[in-house]
## 1
Amino acid sequence: MQHNSTSCHLSPDLCPMGAEISSNKRAVEDLEAWQSRQNGTLQRLEAKLDGLRNWIMGTLFTSFLAAIGWAIVITSRK
């Protein structure tokens, strides 16, 4: 008889590890589902951080331009 190591379709008397194998399989499936949800969450967080970075860079650029404009006005008054 050939034994398949990935599954055991025998009765619990013949395959006492069957319940543990089944439990481990469910645990792995749950972890894979959790990982998938986490990946989605991380992608949304990354998108928000990209937006925040762009907003900060825009604010800094605007402030830089305002400082240059202010410097030009101050130096042209003399």
## 2
Amino acid sequence: MPEPVALVDADLQLRPWRSEDLPALLANANQAEVVRGLSSRFPHPYTAEDGRAFLAGEVVPLDRWALAICRDGQACGGISITCGSGERCGTASLGYWLGPAHWNQGLMGRVLALYVPWVMGDAGLHRLLAEVMVHNPASARVLLRHGFIEEGAARWAIRKDGVLYDLRRFAWLAGPSAAAPA
């Protein structure tokens, strides 16, 4: 197993999740504002049982690229990738979330600046996809400000709470072909 990573920028640290993160995970994840833009496997209310299952790796794999976003030593969100396989080898989907108390402070931009270049190299990726529900313009703005290119939308791609939503699609490309198409 590779050594655990820790990416650091002043008061910000990206590091593997730990069992002692449970109280901070619950405080930040159990917010209705967080879950509205995430997959239904991220429940609300977010209970201690949900948190323990997540920290045990029973919800998503807590592999090398699934990191806690920590501010001043406390977990306040998470970021990870899901790697493609077969003909999608070298690609991954990006997922992230942040507790509302940390929104609108430039934190996610700093997270992306640390995480994306590192994970692209570490995972050997040439393409990183991020999808954002149409009613989450703040997430779209942070992706655009940090090098992602908007590729379009997947119409009615998500059904959440009985409502169909569009997904905006963004990509980060590695190498000389990374420039936006003319």
## 3
Amino acid sequence: MFNSLATSWFRLIGQPCFKVYGKARRENEWRVVEVYATSRRDGDSRWPAPLFRGTCITWTASVVAVGWDFAAMVLREQALSPASRDRPVEVVGGRFRDWRRRLAAAGSEQVSTSEVLAHECGHTWQARRLGFAYLPVGALFTLFREGSHWWNHFENQASEEGQFGGIVNNSVCSELIEKLGSDQRDVFIS
């Protein structure tokens, strides 16, 4: 109930910059997740970090908020190496911050924007399961980030479970397409 009402509220205040397929490893079916962009979350925003500037946040089981700069980076990355439901993106080694696990799994410490979106898809699964309780739990435990303590479980689980299955066809908004370079616009214009 909460997820439906909160998602409806987001739809009233604006349109998503694009939609993605997302799920947790444990889920059988892919869900459509709406990604909303705001300049308050851009890396160069004057709004305070870590609550706004340079952050991605999952609000409901169907809504993720990002900066316009992040959204454009996702599109550029997906133009080069698109994710799909048959070949989803996951957080390498199940962690962002454990460089040993990342090196062992992929030979690189570099985190991609698609991995960050996979992590957020993990949070959408948590929001689906927890309902209204997701907001206070998420607000509290997200601040602790990943790690080896019990209080890191929430973030660890999102990284381990989340899967990003690609951008939904014809869902990229015109405002975001305009922010892309001319060489990349053609990929997302239907």
## 4
Amino acid sequence: MGGAAGIVSDVWRFPVKSFAGERTRRAFVGPFGLLGDRRHAVTDDAGEALTARRAHRLLGFGARYAEAEAAEGAEVRTPSGLALPWDDPAVAEELSQALGRDAWIVRSAAAVHDAAPVHLVTTSALHHAAGWTDGEEIDRRRFRANIVIEAEGDDPFPESSWVGAVLAIGDAGPRLRVVSPTERCAVTTFDPDSLERDNRVLAGLARERENFFGVYATVERPGWVAVGDTVRAERP
């Protein structure tokens, strides 16, 4: 059984984990998620990946791919305005200054994800969440999703019913099995541009959603996803 779930509104990938990402019209979704997504991460002398949960200043850095469809040639934009290849020493120097310790970017053989390769949110959930900020529209970038779906129907959180279902995207696109809701953290409180903190979002999540917003999915079949693709939810 299945039914229309909506259409793809946005496609995002994040070349460097915890950096601002890039919005794209289309991307290939493979077994490990969107091609190039979270392929790089920041590390320090301890050898573990640093994330915005522990170091929110990472959110002030951005990354994109010079070769968009192939997801090659990651370039970093630093808060000071530099635009350089990810492995340029000047990037590591500015990272170290921002974090107050030696840090640099490494490239991983596989993507560095928290729980599952693909993260989805819906526009209806985003619209509903505006009530937590006195009607101010919430910047979708706060939630760092790969795919934003403009959902059908009146349910403000339709993704909650997708857990266990398969989302079929487009006529021959990827098939994504939704495996769990996404538990949020303090990263949602930071403005993506100014890094100013606004606790109203996280307070609303705790009050109304038990800190869950969006869903994680694994990839059952690879394929291209593009803005405007239809999305169908197929349930057992």
